[in-house]
Write a structure and sequence with these properties.
The chain is about 50% helix and about 20% strand. By secondary structure, the protein is α+β, with helices and mostly antiparallel strands.
């Protein structure tokens, strides 16, 4: 044991350093009284008067960047680095707010609490280390022997102490925030019913085109009244219309062939005696399973994508599948057990990615595109580099997504800056996302503001026409309901107005519902109306309906009682997370947060 400790001490210290870097930043790099030296650290902002120092921000940003690079397996796009910068700043702000909340509540930690926690509750990063496990489970005896050994040197113990000085008060604060969280049996039973009770219905959709054909008049005064009553709806974000030159990162057929060849070589390695779990940890791109040796656990038919599903349920136990192509890449599947309608399996996912040589060519084309575009123009530069060109692409701050590119928020930011500075530059620098390299030419730009009445009029007219048609259709629907309740069949009453009766179900209250829309009034009517009776006219996102339930199935009370405690644990944990999120949101809303990153980082 001691020999193992000495040999594994270096990786243990690395794990400790990574686990505690954030805590050390805040424990040692922050003066909660606000006394940090602006000259020494540089201020990026303040939180209720407490400085957000460049040192704190940089440490968190570097940690997030390293993690993102490892996950991406390569360099990050400028859009990704901007998002990481926002995340880093928000994390520092959150840490300061928590420290202030603990100080306000007088929450601290004693040396005795630290000693007790260190003896029985190691940090998760260490508890999962193989050095402290027996048969895959954390071994408290190994951990305590390690703490008592010379291998637990003063540096490690100091890091542990600082970890607990940060973690224990935070846990106390969270317990205070979530102390009142409790889910009653009645609430749990209702949740169970919502998920398990089903309804099957006949229904009539009140088709506006049949019940209210043609147009309906809308006056200018009605349009103006609607506009005045809904001014918030007509606030518009900054919007740009672009021509875009795109170099896609989509893998080619040659890349797919190279990935297949690699997947086949990995399969051969396993067939030749290689350890599946170890190879999964090395090769698999499935972050959720690779550290567990590719273990997927047990799943039923339809739970996986069809390509995966068909192979998994037909593959003999123990056999390694040929590479199976799905939208995620090539899978190597090994079934460990068949259990009726379920399968226990593990897999290795090898994504289809561009080869290094193809990436080199793409980067060279991207450099050429960026160099040519300012002088030759976007179209000619795109033609010279075989980039595709798209015209009339409209992008806004709130809807920055462009198919084949991803988020084009950087292009919007650039267009806004050009419009504000009035530089006259039409072609942007090169931008990069996970999906493509691209640059844009601004054809039109509208700053954030309010849509004027003349531009909003067509949209308002359509909305008012829809409202008027729905009101008329609802009156006709009420006549149908009255006829049915007066003794006429739903089929005959609907037919008299050119409508038909459809059937749907069974469905639950919370499940997807293509007929009525999820969690709508029509769904409520399906469960709240007695079987064989018709509902009032009900409205959902999908339209107006009359609903006649044909069957209800009740939830199984015995099954609920058997799983009640497990359900309570899961629901309580979720409720506590929501309580913490609301608490943090209230701290942020009541705090005075100053963000000077734009000025400070631009100067540096």
């Amino acid at each position: 044991m001691m020999k193992d400790m000495r040999e594994k001490m270096v990786p243990i210290m690395v794990v400790v350093a990574l686990a505690f870097v954030g805590l050390m930043v805040f424990q040692w790099g922050m003066d909660i009284s606000g006394g940090s030296s602006r000259a020494q650290n540089g201020e990026l902002g303040r939180v209720n008067g407490t400085p957000v120092t460049y040192r704190e921000y940089e440490a968190v940003y570097e940690q997030l960047t390293q993690q993102a690079r490892q996950q991406a397996g390569g360099p990050l796009s400028s859009d990704q680095t901007k998002q990481l910068g926002d995340r880093a700043f928000n994390q520092v702000v959150e840490q300061i707010l928590l420290q202030q909340a603990m100080q306000d509540r007088g929450i601290g930690v004693s040396d005795a609490e630290i000693r007790q926690a260190a003896l029985v509750n190691p940090p998760p990063e260490l508890a999962s280390n193989e050095l402290f496990q027996t048969n895959g489970q954390f071994d408290l005896g190994k951990w305590q022997r390690f703490l008592a050994s010379p291998s637990a040197n003063s540096q490690l113990l100091l890091q542990l102490e600082n970890y607990y000085r940060e973690a224990i008060p935070r846990a106390k604060l969270i317990r205070q925030v979530t102390a009142g969280t409790w889910v009653t049996d009645a609430q749990l039973w209702q949740m169970w019913k919502d998920r398990n009770e089903t309804a099957t219905v006949d229904y009539v959709a009140l088709d506006l085109s049949k019940l209210v054909p043609g147009d309906v008049p809308v006056s200018d005064s009605e349009i103006k009244a609607y506009y005045d009553a809904h001014r918030d709806e007509f606030k518009r974000p900054a919007t740009a219309r672009f021509s875009i030159a795109v170099l896609s990162k989509t893998p080619t057929a040659a890349d797919t062939a190279a990935t297949l060849e690699h997947a086949e070589s990995v399969r051969k390695e396993i067939e030749d005696g290689g350890d599946f779990a170890a190879i999964a940890k090395r090769e698999s791109a499935d972050k959720g399973t690779k550290e567990q040796g590719g273990e997927l656990g047990t799943f039923v038919r339809g739970q996986m994508v069809p390509q995966f599903d068909s192979v998994a349920f037909s593959l003999p136990v123990g056999q390694i599948s040929q590479p199976v192509l799905s939208p995620f890449g090539y899978h190597l599947i090994q079934v460990e057990a068949h259990r009726g309608d379920s399968v226990q399996a593990r897999h290795i996912l090898i994504p289809v990615e561009m080869t290094d040589s193809a990436l080199d060519v793409l980067y060279a084309r991207a450099d050429t595109l960026e160099a040519l575009a300012p002088k030759a123009g976007l179209t000619r530069a795109a033609r010279a580099t075989h980039a595709s060109v798209r015209t009339d692409v409209t992008v806004s701050e709130t809807q920055p997504f462009v198919p084949g590119i991803g988020s084009a928020s950087e292009a919007i930011d650039w267009a806004r800056d050009q419009a504000k500075d009035n530089t006259g530059v039409k072609v942007s620098p090169l931008f990069e996302t996970d999906e493509a390299f691209y640059l844009v030419q601004t054809d039109a730009f509208s700053p954030a503001g309010e849509t004027p009445l003349n531009e909003a009029t067509p949209r308002i007219r359509r909305e008012l026409i829809l409202q008027k048609k729905r009101a008329q259709a609802k009156k006709i629907g009420e006549q149908i309901v009255a006829a049915v309740r007066g003794g006429k069949s739903l089929e005959d009453a609907a037919k008299a107005h050119g409508l038909s009766v459809e059937s749907y179900g069974p469905f639950t209250r919370l499940g997807p519902n293509p007929a009525f829309g999820q969690a709508s009034a029509a769904v409520g009517a399906a469960f709240g109306t007695p079987v064989g009776k018709v509902s009032d006219v009900v409205e959902s996102p999908a339209g107006l309906f009359i609903v006649r339930p044909t069957a209800h199935t009740e939830a199984d009370r015995k099954a609920f009682e058997a799983r009640k405690d497990q359900l309570r644990e899961a629901v309580t944990a979720q409720a506590q997370q929501q309580d913490v999120a609301r608490f943090m949101d209230s701290l942020r809303k009541s705090a005075k947060i100053v963000d000077n990153r734009d000025q400070v980082l631009k100067q540096s």
